[in-house]
Amino acid sequence: MICSICKKGETSVVDSRPTEDGTAIRRRRLCVCGARFTTFERVQYREIMVIKKNGRKSAFDRDKLAKSIFIALKKRPIDTETTEKFISRISRSLEELGQSEISTNTIGTMVMEGLKDLDPVAYVRFASVYRNFREEKDFVQFVDKLDVYKKR
Q1: Integer angstrom CA distances of residue 144 from 126, 129, 135, 150
Q2: DSSP secondary structure letters along 64-86
Q3: Which of 10, 96, 132, 136 to pair with 110, CA 20 to 30 A apart?
Q4: pLDDT digits (tens, 9 = 90+) for 24-63
Q5: Which residue ranges make up each domain of the chain?
């Protein structure tokens, strides 16, 4: 494993353990330069191609999915472990579909449904990008449809 600090490949594993949900191995590593860092090892069942809205295809990137979810959850009271479990659950669900090609619409809908239960604010944030809200009225119309915010 290449050290992210000194870029040398002389690292050793200090500790290995499965993640809480059992879908990956977490490894603590030590480099000869003294840096410590964590890596995760996951099983990749099959290569999933994502079909973009414009028809282009690209390989599914778990890190890209994670980045968009972390942005939606920024400054929200959701800990990193819960977020990682959520990301793993979405990735696993995509793999369990058994399809080699999945549309961005399918992925976005899965993420939105999960965020709706996890954190309503993150749900609205993600939806605003995913659904491409352009004006204030787009937000108002979307939020008006949510049960969480309806007046009783």
Answers
A1: 16, 17, 15, 7
A2: HHHHHHHHHTTTSS--HHHHHHH
A3: 136
A4: 899 999 999 999 999 888 776 678 999 998 999 999 999 9
A5: 1-43, 47-144
